[in-house]
């Protein structure tokens, strides 16, 4: 398999480490120790490189299983520490808490809001939103108007600025932060973006927010393996 060419470890071990790291929010060192108990000696730096390479690939491949999302969006951003500085993680979920898209940005201005909403619209291009709920940050209003003027967003989309309606997203931020916390911050925007993509996609899979329903841990393993053409 070209994606895993010249890798010293079996594909199953690589995917297991990527899955566990992104799912449980443990340190690379702790995960390396866990694997050593299973008779597999892996350096923490090796697991780090696997996460950087394969977490975004899992996200890309699982999109076909994402299924429909509600037209009622909740959009907000939260803080993530990168290179000793606070950066912004834009996130959008639907009213049922299912992830639509996320994007790490060094800015919180209109340009960043525009890029994020445009990314989210590409993800759900077949079923655009009927309403978008944000906080009162002016950047969102300007970004939505620009998208409507460009014909990328329907003109009848309702933009609501309600803190109460975004409570579900605030709670979801908190759950994601619990997975992020053991990392103690990221060193660069590139590594942060890849790792956060892995965290988001594994949370989506774990919560059953895809076409398949009622999956347990064994089904999760099967799904990730099948994404890479491994035997069920």
Structure description:
By secondary structure, the protein is of the alpha/beta class. It folds into two domains: 100 residues; 108 residues, Nucleotidyltransferase, domain 5. β2 and β3 form a beta hairpin. α3 packs across α7.
Tally of DSSP β-strands: 5
Count of the separate structural domains: 2
Low-confidence stretches: none
Q: Total helix count?
A: 8
Radius of gyration: 18 Å
CATH-level-4 superfamily name of the largest domain: Ribonuclease H-like superfamily/Ribonuclease H
Order of helices and strands: HHHEEEHEHEHHH
* SS-derived structural category: alpha/beta
The amount of beta strand, in percent, is 15-25%
Strand order of the largest sheet: 3-2-1-4-5
| CATH C-level of the largest domain | Alpha Beta
General shape: globular
CATH-defined architecture of the largest domain: 2-Layer Sandwich
Strand count, sense and barrel status of the largest sheet are: 5 strands, mixed
Helix content: 40-55%
Distance between the termini: 16 Å
CATH topology of the largest domain: Nucleotidyltransferase, domain 5
Mean pLDDT: 89
In short:
With 232 residues, the protein is of the alpha/beta class. The chain contains eight helices and five strands. The chain folds into two domains: 7-65 and 187-227; 72-179, Nucleotidyltransferase, domain 5.
What is the topological layout?
Blueprint: H1 11-24, H2 28-37, H3 44-62, E1 72-82, E2 85-94, E3 99-105, H4 110-123, E4 131-134, H5 138-149, E5 158-161, H6 167-180, H7 189-206, H8 217-227
Parallel strand pairs: 1-4, 4-5
Antiparallel strand pairs: 1-2, 2-3
Helix pairs in contact: 1-3, 1-7, 2-3, 3-7, 4-5
């Amino acid at each position: 398999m070209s994606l895993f060419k010249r890798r010293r470890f079996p594909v199953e071990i690589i995917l297991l480490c990527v899955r566990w790291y992104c799912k449980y929010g443990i340190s690379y060192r702790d995960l390396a120790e866990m694997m050593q108990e299973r008779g597999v000696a892996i350096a923490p730096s090796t697991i780090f490189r696997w996460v950087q390479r394969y977490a975004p690939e899992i996200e890309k491949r699982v999109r076909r299983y994402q299924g429909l999302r509600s037209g009622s969006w909740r959009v907000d951003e939260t803080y993530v520490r990168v290179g000793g500085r606070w950066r912004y993680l834009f996130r959008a979920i639907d009213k049922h808490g299912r992830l639509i898209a996320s994007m790490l940005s060094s800015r919180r201005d209109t340009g960043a809001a525009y890029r994020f909403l445009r990314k989210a619209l590409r993800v759900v291009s077949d079923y655009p939103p009927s309403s978008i709920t944000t906080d009162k940050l002016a950047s969102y209003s300007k970004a939505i108007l620009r998208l409507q003027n460009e014909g990328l967003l329907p003109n009848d989309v309702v933009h609501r600025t309600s803190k109460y309606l975004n409570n579900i997203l605030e709670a979801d931020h908190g759950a994601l932060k619990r997975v992020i916390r053991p990392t103690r911050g990221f060193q660069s925007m590139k590594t942060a973006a890849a790792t956060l993509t892995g965290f988001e996609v594994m949370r989506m899979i774990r919560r059953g927010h895809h076409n398949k329903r009622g999956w347990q841990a064994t089904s999760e393993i099967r799904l990730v393996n099948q994404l890479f053409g491994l035997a069920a």
